[in-house]
Amino acid sequence: MTKTTEQKALKFIDEYHLLEKGDKVLVALSGGADSVFLLSFLLKFKNRFKIDLAAFHLNHKLRGRTAAEDEKFCLDFCRKSKVKIIHVSKDVRAYAKKLKVSLEEAGREARYSELNKAAKKIGCTKIATAHNLSDNVETILLNFFKGAGIKGLSGIPVRRDNIIRPLLRLSSNEIRNYLRKDKIPFRIDESNLDSDYERNFLRNEIIPKLKKKLNPRLEEKVSNTSNIISGINSSIEKQLAKISSETVKIDGNELQINSRTISKLDNSLLSVFLKSVIEDNFKIELSSENIFALVELVSSQAGNEVHLKENIIASKERNELVITRKSSTKSEKAVLRIKAGQSVRVYGKVVSIIKIKGKMFKFTPNKSMEFISADGLSNVFEIRKWKDGDKFQPIGMKGTKKISDFLSDEKIASVRKKDQPVLTNSGKIVWVIGLRIDEKYKVTPQTKKILKLTLTEK
Known about the structure:
The chain has 3 domains: 2-226, Rossmann fold; 252-325, Uridine Diphospho-n-acetylenolpyruvylglucosamine Reductase, domain 3, CATH 3.30.465; 331-456, Phenylalanyl-tRNA Synthetase, Chain B, domain 3 (3-Layer(bba) Sandwich). The chain is elongated. A hairpin with an 8-residue loop joins strand 17 (391-392) and strand 18. Helix 5 crosses helix 6 (103-122), helix 7 packs across helix 9 (198-213) and helix 10 crosses helix 12. It has 458 residues and is an alpha+beta fold. The relative contact order is 0.08. The protein contains 15 helices and 22 strands. The strands form 5 sheets. The chain has a 6-stranded mixed sheet, with helices on both faces. It has a 5-stranded antiparallel sheet with strand order 7-8-11-10-9. The chain has a 5-stranded antiparallel sheet with strand order 12-16-19-20-21, with no helix packed on it.
């Protein structure tokens, strides 16, 4: 039994080329059965793989004395095994409040963040985590019940960047039987028995019943199906990458997607594409309702909008789908005062007014940098959103133009148009920020005082 378990793990590692000669591997060690097996297994075969090992333990400070005992167990285990260990404490409960996420999500974020820091600190080329076959099945089922797309049903990836998961072919029962047979000690996390957590509910109550009533080889069968889905997902992701390269532009915090091109996609592929590109760029999870609304938006009239999560808005423009995160109006003052020589942050960007000595400057086509004549202007400027009735004389034009018409001519997306700021002086518009200055303030040979206006990301 012991050799069979080892052979399965060795074959899996070789099949996916998870370890290479000269790798220095940092093992995530919790003290539980899976991570203890992983470290013990890699120690036993380190000469076969020609690798070096180190361990990492994170004390989540969630279980008081028990957590301290887990940490001591890991330190003792590594000392006896002559393995270097880095151990870190993190108040995950406080971290969860800060991120406004669940304890499970905060714990995961903290683990990977600290693991990467530790790996970088001691020069590890790879991080090995002890996710096993049973974990993978739980993840697939959780994603299925939550309505995840094809990517979610692919399960836990074998490799992601520098993170490898060598135990994905072994079940939790196989691992525990191996440890007991070889008399290798491990810690039992009592929180795993609490079925109030989603994953524990599946593990303790649902999966055992499914195995008993439907298929005792449930883990193997679900994993096989997941492997097939994973292969399909890889093929789809290649298509998505090609579509994205041809249709997507990123302008600051704004995503611009060519709606003419993507409207020709099959609705199924369009759904997967929109979910992937928006979730990847805005780090949110879209619901099926969000996806259906976005698909309809692609073929709708210009000016329509869909409100997604976390103040993210998708709007249909002439030939584009524009997705942007709306700035919080509470954090933006109606009017900002700025003097020559100062900078202010407005709508996620920075506006600066810089004094120019003499006439040592050069005009450029960059609309985010303008030079104006400050002769006769007050030293105090104001920044506000444009409003109905606002007019100015775009440089190069003879007459005035309404701001609303100017923004339409400039093909500014409706979702951005509402928040377009203007720079004024004594109530008169000097600059439609980032787009055009007023003709009255252009620099001429007679100009005595010159100011440089800039709009930057930081």
